[in-house]
Amino acid sequence: MIHLQPLDPEALSQECDPEQFNFETTAELEPLSEVIGQERALEAVHFGIKMRRKGFNLFAMGPHGTGKNTAIRQFLAQRVGSELVPSDWCYVNNFAEPYKPEALELPPGQGLDFCGEMERLVKELHNVIPAAFGGEDYETLEQAIIDEFKDRQDKALEELKAKAQERGMALLRTQTGWGFAPLQDGKVISPDDFQNLPAEEQERFKDIAAVLEEMLQATLKQIQQSEGERRERIRALNRGIVMLAVEHLIEALRQKYGALPEVVAYLNAVQNDVVENVDDFRRKQEDGNGNLAGVPLPRSAQGPSSFRRFQVNVLVNHKETQGAPIVYEDHPTYHRLFGQVEHTLAQSGVLVTDFNLIKAGALHRANGGYLILDAHKLLQQQPFTYEQLKRALLAREITIESPAKIAGLTSTVSLDPEPIPLSVKVILLGDRRIYYLLHQLDPEFGELFKVVVDFAEEMDRNAGNNLLYGRLIGTLASKEGLHHFDRAAVAQVIDYSARYAGHSGKLSARMHQIADLVREADYWAAEAGREVVTAEDVRQAVQAQIRRVDRVRERLQEQIEEDTILVDTAGEQVGQVNGLSVLSIGNFAFGRPSRITARVRPGKGEVIDIEREVELGGPLHSKGVLILSSFLGARYALDQPLSLSASLVFEQSYGGVDGDSASSAELYALLSALAKAPIKQALAVTGSVNQHGQVQAIGGVNEKIEGFFDLCRARGLSGEQGVLIPASNVKHLMLRRDVIEAATAGTFHIYPVETIDQGIEIMTGMSAGERTGAGHFPEGTINQRVEARLVVLAEALRSFKAEDRK
What is the residue range of 769's domain? Predict the structure, then answer.
């Protein structure tokens, strides 16, 4: 028989020794500037940020609290100061096609300067142009043109009047226009006198009038053409006057921005528009309040409506920016990412807009730098937000469109701003599930996010990292004004971190959780009136955290203690074993003992999982049960079929069961039922099993042990109680002090089990037995009794079949 000894108390937890530290409090430690425990991730960040090729955007993946955002921001903050500040971007009016505003790129910081210079230009034009047209020289030139064409008109009419008089007709101007009337003795004949003329005379006058009417029409046409020429002459005069007035003003700007062809072209267009629409500057402004149709507008959109076309909408201003911009968009909706064209309500009740109401998005602000987005929040937005982001990255340009237009839900004509070239490094933050789903389901995702930054949940526990933890605590204390920790308190935090990581040789890299513990320990130190946080304050913080969330655990514990939920901790039972599971509620996990029972009878080799039959068992649990069938057949049914029907169940389990950590407990119950060997109820067991009978590691080993310990302690520790765990889980042990104290006193035991044979011997107190050279198990061993029972079941099944045939 194998005599397996329980673990020594020293193996139940690897406590940090405060004496390894050469400081008294964390105030003595050098502040920590880097993120600890993420060497692989930081290498990837370094590569991804410096790699400037297309598609090398980053996806930082890992659980919440591992410092993804902090690490990336810290790295970028150290780098961006040495990078070039990106250009400013402005939108200006497109005088040829106003619904297609033009984008202007200016050197960093010059966007606002250019905007102010255009405002000053318009103000100066309001002064210069009216003054140019108000002088005597202009009035003289204009009057000369007017007099010249008036003389032409008068001369043409006089010539026509003379020709009419030669024919005995007079040219008259009436209310309805020009006309002819017959003359007699140099006087116009009245209508009555005209009717008294002979018919021949009347016809003669009518013929003459018809000829003169044709001559009148030709003259009037000539006068109309002359009027058009006059207006054109005056317009040319005005253009010349305006050119003289504004040329030097705009030329100064052209000289200043001569290195920017797009700006020069825009200034030329402004000059042409001013020349062509000079009357706008000669008229009184429509609205001195700078409103459009009487409706107050944002400051960027203010200005009389006829002069808003000369304003400059500074979309992105880098006047105060140092290095490349870093933009974190916490709420990545479509408009917040790509910008939008706003509208304002006019007095008539219609929505109006122009290029001054174009607003920037996060991509505009991050252009030339770095944009950080939360992948989960991005995917939660409208379906086309993520698609438009990919489109922008692939096309390398930012297009401002309304979501309704993209979805084809509207055909309303609106602004179509010119796209802006895009050069940005996008960094998505998310968990691993999102990354792998996107990589699998979206072919373009892998082309755009080629750099994976994988943040680990844990780090090695060694002297160097222990000291880094101390520096981390000291840095947080100094930064947030907390009490500093003594070295025993630092050691206690390290122990908690290892427990949280679920491994005695690891530390948690989820710094968010550790930082919260530091803050809570500071609170309890202040409550106790201490100047320095001690180990007792850290333990108090841990207990307070548990106390706030363990109501469900306490209620379940009460139900077991009251025998509402049946779990034995003393005596022996056949086919019954105490299994251990872990329940998680938020961030709090605790162990729960459960009774597992097995029943056997003749059958066709089926092991029925009742949990699976009623759809309460998950796939991993069902897999574990199927492995039991394989183990039984391989070990005990060498020369005959496995002729049993067995049923397994978690008693009083009313929720789902998943995972294979109970498969060893189920096998113990099944072997007990087959061998009719009672199992000690003072013991509980956890661990999965493979087809060869090897016990394998499981998760939550600390919580499972402590859950059964709490029940045993409540009923009274007898010295026989304990838990069987996989030997491969020993390195994960970071048990509570009360459990270690009980183990030291010999009132509670933890057994490291490698095989089912070892476990069944501890559970039953009987030898498991090994096959001899003749292929038989020793008489009276568990394995021999199981095999013998299976033979009996097989013979019983054959007898039943023979009776049926008869």
Answer: 555-801
